[in-house]
Amino acid sequence: MRIRDIYAQRQFGLSIEIFPPKTPEGDEALRQTLRELAPFGPAFVSCTYGAGGSTSKRTVEWCREIQEQFSLPATAHFTCVGSTRDELVEWLQFAWTAGIRNIMALRGDAPAGQTEFRAVAGGLGHANELVSLIREEFPEMGIGVAGYPEKHPEASDLATDLRYLQQKVACGADAVYTQLFFDNSAFLRFREQCERAGIRIPIIPGIMPITEFARIQRITAMCGAKIPAGLAARLENARDDKAAQFEIGVDFAIQQCRELIDQGVAGIHLYVLNKSHAGQRILDALGLLPASHS
Fold first, then answer.
1. Helix or strand or coil: residue 106?
2. pTM, two decimal places
3. Which residues contact 273 (CB under 8 A, 6 or more apart)?
């Protein structure tokens, strides 16, 4: 199923994001995670694309396995980093031939050692250009793009960031998937701003349950997401108790998702970090297990 069809045909679209493991042991652990999460019937599972395209082939291989072995639609992440236009088209053909019909189109981060993103000679410099390329070369491909409720770290302000998002949508994006956030009011303001800006495609909130405080601190330091003071204080008090951190984080994510569903979101994009326990707890609590598996 293409991204463009998911939210038109389903009352609620759950999506799950994973990344290509680096070891055979990690591969087996991810397969077990997918076995445990597949019964929740996600609309798709997305697989990330490593820094500088370092996992570009593995991304497609995992997407193919997700579709063939787990009977779930897959979405491959795809970035502009380090590739010419011809190389980008070649990768898209590789993905299409492998049966991939959905792409998460992202500019990508600056390669290691660079302080800012710079397109290679003959390459693309912005995500909207990548969306245009996909629409031109593979018009039937479903396309998701990123949105930032608390602003992209490189954007000068929210208004500028919103203009970049408008460009991606105008070039042919089918849905927006947000960066992780922990303050629902930030998402709701962002969604309202998108509506006022004429963005009519689904805006899907990205939720990452906190299972380890130190890890989420590293992640938020890179992406700019803010942890509410009350939640941060509770996690700080449990810094020496990983089980308590897990319970605090999962309970918070459940409440966060409930509030968002009450606000009429078209779906939830769940960042599971290749582990199933937190995701299972959240989806069970939300009652998202399909009736055939209840």
1. strand
2. 0.93
3. 19, 208, 211
- Residue 116: pLDDT over 70: no
CATH architecture of 3-293: Alpha-Beta Barrel (3.20)
Cβ atoms of residues 26 and 55 within 8 Å? no
pLDDT of residue 268: 97
Find out whether 39 and 294 touch, Cβ atoms under 8 Å: no
CA distance 276 to 264: 25
Domain coordinates in residue numbering, the chain = 3-293
Check whether 23 has a pLDDT greater than 60.
yes
pLDDT in tens, 166-215: 999 999 999 999 999 999 999 999 999 999 999 999 999 999 999 999 99
* Contact criterion met (CB below 8 Å) for 245 and 210: yes
230, 243, 293 from 211: Cα distances, Å: 16, 8, 26
- The reply to whether 17 belongs to the active site is yes
- DSSP sequence for 36-50: HHGGG--SEEEE---
- Going by their DSSP bridges, the two strands 74-79 and 102-106 should be labelled as parallel
Q: Is 195 helix (H, G, I), strand (E, B) or coil?
A: helix
Alpha carbon distance 180, 206 (integer Å):
5
Which one is catalytic: 17, 65, 90, 129?
17
Range in 42-51, 129-138, 144-153 the model is least confident about:
42-51
- What is the rounded distance in angstroms from the CA atom of residue 66 to the CA atom of residue 62? 6
CA atoms within 13 Å, Cβ hemisphere of 242: 5
Q: What per-residue confidence (pLDDT) applies to 8?
A: 84
